[in-house]
């Protein structure tokens, strides 16, 4: 197949000087500068001014060409060549005008060498410049002066320059001892000076450093890569990726080429194809990935005016049209751009896997004979598996018996992954290469083949490693071909701050999360870990299928839950599901958000809320499945999204609804659950609250309403009791406390104060004034008129001691605001202006919605507002409600990235619902004005 490909591009070095400037003209301009005896500073200053002007002109021209041709690789090469020209011209001027040596001694020779990234001949606009001043044997006064003068010129130009001055002996000695220096020298490139000296360095580096150390170098580079990924985020599908250091970014390509260059002694990627390490198609993929990533990186640097490597949301929005992307097929321009980015990151991962496998084949030590034995796979018949001689095992990796295995039976494309899962085998790179070339065999006949679908469902519902196997299928391109609906969401990002991963990555992580829930043993997984052991066995499989499908309709004009249900009804029969099973999956997909929404934004002590939810789920088994699905979905959104508070809310909603869907019978009815919660509290208090004995304990229990006992977890109840006791012992009615929450990225601020209508507004305003971002709130009132409010704010520092000091300052601000010592409204307005909320409004576009409903509660009017979050939003909303003479009985605050969803249960000052259409319209109007105020 490779023979039909177009020729590989020519090697990257197409000129010996940059097209961005005329080197001869620059040299003439510097030669005209007169150097006065004893005064080199003025002359050097003139040189720097000329170089600065030339640098500005060169970068401007480079940016114009980049915008015109979208070739970041060419841009980086041109900038590198321009830098070479500057160094050569500056060197010539220095050795002629400042430090001439008419009869140089053997020590007065120098070679200037580019190393590191600059040594590759690629330079981003904001990149560092790494130079090696290579000397014959030791430093001389002349060499020191010349090197120093070059460096000062470059520094004064505003460039970031890393440098070293060494002899060849020193280079070799340090390269042996230090992997970083070894890597930098690996890409050394001659710029000017003594060519013999540079050739000696190259020869000795090969003979004395590289020889015999390939395995160690490869291991060290892969370990560095893994550590870098750990720091920047393990997934290549993070929605704000680091173009340079992130997984699938440029540094991975660099690492790949370092390894190849070290192991195969090649200098260009074209040579990798000639040596058979890459096929011609893979070599072209390398060049395509490199060009795209360099294009993005150069645009980033030009756009920000600095060495910015992180593709933040606001920069994505600006870069997409700059790169020529336009909205199409349901995706906006920025989503199309990021889909291209993530597909490129996937290709980088594939290339890395190919190279590592090739190295293993060529350089690993011979394995013991028995381990190298190639055994035929003859699996026992189980769930559609049949005996097959099309596969074999090579070094614990499954591979094909011959290159016709897939053509002979296209079902083998699915079967190889099913066998890999069943026997816990990795896939051989030769098999993966053949599979990639055989993807054209995936047609409607294979998609509708009963055996292929049975094998696929077995993978999805496997008790082994379904997430790992499905991800490998996805990376091979097979998953999207076999299930085209899944193919539409491959590498699709959701342009918001809530979802951490692309849609396909989220779906696969959901599968892995469900497996963790099923295995149990982690209390943080909540009620789901208990319930999954009680669901019907077949429903367990349906849960896995549902999680694979629940977001599969993202990016379509229609609501993704409704559209997803239609897809589920289409795929169910294909996957071998009965009509009833298909309907269960479709229902779960359509309703997969409802339990989370109700748990986080409705009053769970309100009878109407429970009846409404019961009307949706209708049966206990469906509610179990929905809770498990909801838990897995939230956890797989990203780190810190799931927490104990959400777990407790889901538990409460489940147990509140259980009696309704079971026709009034419940093993644990509401009043009994309150009694159980109180009894658990008594036992815990007996151990941890010795100052709350007998009658005092019962009096304390009586201060909290039933909703408190059902919604708050036991550990928090104990801390609340201790907090109230300490506050009352100190004779205070106003107090606050701080709780750091490990692993969740949030800090809890609990406030005890006399209840009054504007309490929540003041607390929210004080948080906003202190720069704290509120992501959740739990509001409770005691029977004796005190408010016990817990506000969750985004963590500001990694170190606990720093975060604790910050949180205490915020808590002190809340107390001062409640005492009237701070004018909250003015402080919030000032912070909002400083935060630049206009910039966020340009980055994200969230529709503003206000719903006023009198059917969601028997006692209250429920107001739900959603829109773009900003500093002080909760304060402004609650203040607006107070100004309209509304009493806020309870509030539910949720933040989904940049989207705020706040729900308020209100009455008028007489305790009645807001009934008139005119009053509702006035409330809606003022709340919309608050939401759309970008200050």
TrEMBL record:
It catalyses: [protein-PII]-L-tyrosine + UTP = [protein-PII]-uridylyl-L-tyrosine + diphosphate; [protein-PII]-uridylyl-L-tyrosine + H2O = [protein-PII]-L-tyrosine + UMP + H(+). Pfam families: ACT, GlnD_UR_UTase, HD. GO terms for molecular function: [protein-PII] uridylyltransferase activity; phosphoric diester hydrolase activity. Uridylyltransferase (UTase) activity is inhibited by glutamine, while glutamine activates uridylyl-removing (UR) activity. Residues 748-829, 862-935 form the ACT domain. Its EC number is 2.7.7.59, 3.1.4.-. Keywords: Hydrolase, Magnesium, Multifunctional enzyme, Nucleotidyltransferase, Repeat, Transferase. GO terms for biological process: regulation of nitrogen utilization. The keyword Transferase applies. Residues 1-386 are annotated as: Uridylyltransferase. Its cofactor is Mg(2+). Residues 503-626 form the HD domain. Belongs to the GlnD family. Modifies, by uridylylation and deuridylylation, the PII regulatory proteins (GlnB and homologs), in response to the nitrogen status of the cell that GlnD senses through the glutamine level. Under low glutamine levels, catalyzes the conversion of the PII proteins and UTP to PII-UMP and PPi, while under higher glutamine levels, GlnD hydrolyzes PII-UMP to PII and UMP (deuridylylation). Thus, controls uridylylation state and activity of the PII proteins, and plays an important role in the regulation of nitrogen metabolism. NCBIfam families: PRK05092.1, UTase_glnD. PANTHER family: BIFUNCTIONAL URIDYLYLTRANSFERASE/URIDYLYL-REMOVING ENZYME, BIFUNCTIONAL URIDYLYLTRANSFERASE_URIDYLYL-REMOVING ENZYME. Has four distinct domains: an N-terminal nucleotidyltransferase (NT) domain responsible for UTase activity, a central HD domain that encodes UR activity, and two C-terminal ACT domains that seem to have a role in glutamine sensing. This is Bifunctional uridylyltransferase/uridylyl-removing enzyme.
